[in-house]
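INFO batch 0412 | record 1 of 1 | parsing
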Amino acid sequence: MQRVKRRLAAVMCADVAQYSKLMERDEDGTLDRLKAYRLVMSALTERHNGRIVNTWGDAVIIEFASVMEAVQCAVDIQNELSVRNADLPDLNRMEFRIGINLGDIMVEGEDIYGDGVNVAARLQELAPRGGIMLSQSVYDQVKSKMALGFDPLGPQHVKNVTEPVETYSVRIGGRNSPADTSASQKTHHTETPRQDGIPRPEWERDTQAVASGFEQARRWLRAQPKRVRGCVFMISLFFLLNLLTSGLSTLWFVWPSLPFAAMLFWHLLVGRQEKRLGRPTGTGD
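INFO prediction complete | emitting tokens
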């Protein structure tokens, strides 16, 4: 029996967005495309000195000794697959979501395990279609060494990980990795000047700050269980009805929202306690 070893490694996890729908629509074509795209990923992994650890279904785990090689490999993969997808109808495009984490892993034979792998898998689940999501440990290593743009998306609560994970998306090929254009207003710098060198006007900075706040709120909500999202939806619905019928002169939405606000408070409180105790909370999806 081989002895389990430990080492520090950059771990990339990738899977196909909406793979089940693609298979349901065109099983043979989707499988052929998956095989072709995996050949591309394999060639780029070898070029960047990575090792494909495991593949199952539409997913893949890749290990790198270098964090910079891992991130550059992910960027090259998304750029290459984007070119291949450009000639396909929207319904047939196969877009991967990629998560990368730097952490301690356990090695047994050819397989790897541990939190270093788990966090990468959760980051992949948070990544948008055709996008790349990084952990704080990866971002710290590459932020000043690679000619890439990064969008800080804040701490995310992910399944089976006790502490919130700080997340950063990578801008790829002049476009943002998040599908939402509101994220394009954010950078890892304090402010981006206009191309003509003139500082942005105050109203534009305010708009940028609002867009950034909405994006962070949306991503936080996306990471929450269904019961939390349901409470937020009902409270928002009552507020919208209040706004449409009475404006802000009479705030009657508070009263029908109280039960949902109480449930929301309770679910969030219980969720924190479960994370503190190390119990899996799940997303409820």
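INFO post-check: Confidence is low (pLDDT under 50) at residues 176-199, 275-285.
INFO record closed
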